[in-house]
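In practice, a research group might receive sequence data for several interacting partners and want a quick structural hypothesis before committing to experiments. The following worked case mirrors that situation: the sequences arrive first, and a predicted assembly follows.
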Amino acid sequence: MSVTAMSVPTQPGVRDQVSAEEWQIRVDLAALYRLVAEEGMTDLAATHISARVPGPEDHFLINPYGLMYEEVTASNLVKVDMHGEKVMESPFPVNPAGFTIHSAVHMARPDVQCVVHTHTAAGMAFASVEAEVLPISQTSMYFWGRTGYHAWEGISTNLDERDRIVRDLGTNRALILHNHGLLVAGPTIPAAWVMIFQLERVCKTQLEAMAAAKASGRDLALIPADVAEKTAKGFDQTLQNAADGKTNFDWEAHLRALDEIDDSYRH
Amino acid sequence: MPATAVDTVPSLKDKVSPEEWQTRVELAAFYRLVAQHGWDDLVGTHISARVPGTDGKEFLLNPYGLLFDEITASSLVRLDFDGNLLHESAYPVNAAGFTIHSSVLAGRPDVECAAHTHTVAGMALSAVEGTLRPVHQKALRFYNALAYHPYEGIADDPDECARLQRDLGDHDAMVLENHGLLTCGRNIRSTWALLYNLEKCCAVQVALEAAGDGIIELSDDIKQNTYQQFQRTLKNNQSGGSKLDGWESSLRLLKKQDPSFLH
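A structural hypothesis for the assembly, expressed as C-alpha cells:
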C-alpha cells in the first residue's frame, strides 16, 4: 500500500530548478533519511545527513530543520554552502551549528559524497566507553582499523573543532564522536547507508559481547590479525567498487521497500 | 482506518473551547507517540495535561482501560484535583495515576503536562543504585537536574503526594525508583521531548554500564557548560515557541498514519 505525498511539506518547482543529476541525489538522500528513520536511528528532529552536490561550487544538501526524517523529501532538502548558509531559496530553516561537523568532513575529504551522523542509544553508549572497534565479527571488519576517535569538546560552537575533527577522521571511513554519537563518511549515498546500518550493528554487537564477557569472566574471542586484515581488505574493495560506480549495494531494493511504505520521499 | 473502542464516544470538538480541544488533540497524540515507540505498558501509566481556561484547576487524563493507541481527543477524561470526574465517561480513572499526576500538576503551577512510563530501560535504570551518569551530551540535559523518588508501593496513598512534590522540587524530570520515569513541562511538546531524551539516556546507561569498565568521564567545565547551553535553548524555546523540535511534523505523520486520535 502506497501513501501519497499530500500531507508532506514538499517544495514544488525545485525539480525544474536543478540539474537531473542533483535531482537524483536529492531522491537518494531523501530515501536515506527515510531508511534511517525506518531503522529507528533518529533523534526526534536532531542530527543530520548531508550529501555533496556535483559541481565545483562546494554545495551540499541537508535536511529542513524541524522536520522529522519521515517528512524529508527530494524537494524540501535545503542546498547550503560550507558555512551552512542557504544558496537556494527555501522556506525551511537550517541548523548551521549542526552542519559544522559535516562541512569539516566534506571540505577535507573530496572522496566523500555523504556524511551520516546519529545519536542512537547503542552509538552513544559505545561512544562513551574507552573501547575501539574490535575484530570480533565479520561485520566489525568493515570498521576495524578504519575508524577514528574524536574527543568531545562540548556542544560545538567553536569552528576550530573542524581541524581536530579532520585530524581525527584522517583517511578513515567512520568517526566515533566520544560522549556524543557516530559518524560515517561514505563514497556514495548507498554506501553511506550500508555503513551507518553496519556501524550501528557493530556497536550493539560489541557492547553485548563486552557485557557477556564481563559477566562470565571469559575473554572476547578476537579474530587473528591476518584473517582480520584479509576480511577488512575485502570490505575496502567493496567500498572502492562503490566509489568507482561498480556497485550500488542493490539500492533499488531499498527504494522498493520504501515505496511500499511511503513513496513521498520522491517528491 | 482501524476501528477503535472510542468510535462510540461522542465528539467533544464543538462542546469545548478551541484551546481545550487543541490540548486534547496534542495529549492524545502524545499517547499515540508513546505507543508507537513501544513505551506503553498495556493500559498502565498515564500522561496528563492541564485544561486551559480553568485557572489551572482541572486536568485531562486517559480513560482507564483503553490501550494508548486507542486514545482519542474526545475520550480523555477531565478531572479536578479532588478527583471529581467533570463530565460523563464510560471509563473510570485509575487511582494511582490520579495520585501521581495530581501531585505534580497541583504542586507545580508552572507545569502544563506530566508524563510517566514503565519502560524496560527506565525501570532497569531505576532499579540500580546510583544516578544518571553525566557522560554524554544527552545526559547533560539532566546534569544535577534529575530528581529521584523512593518506591512506596502502588501510589494509591494520598499521603505520598507531599513526598512526590518534595522529591520533584523544581526539576522537570524524575526517576521513580524501582518503578519508572516521569517528566513534566511548560507544554505538551516539551514534555514529550524530555521523556524521549530521558528514555534514551536510560537505554544508553544500561548498555554502557553492562559493557564497560572504562567509561570516558567528562570535565566539570564541559558538564556545566553543556547543561547551561541546554538551559539557554530551553528558555529560547519557551519564549519563542520553537518549531524546530519536530512536534508539528510528528502530528502530521500521526495524522497520515492513523487520524483516529483526532476524534
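Before designing any experiment, note the following. The CA atoms of residues 49 and 116 of chain A lie 4 Å apart. The interface with chain B takes residues 3, 7-9, 43-45, 65-68, 70-71, 93, 95, 119, 121-122, 124-131, 152-155, 178-181, 206-208, 210-211, 214-215 of chain A (CB under 8 Å).
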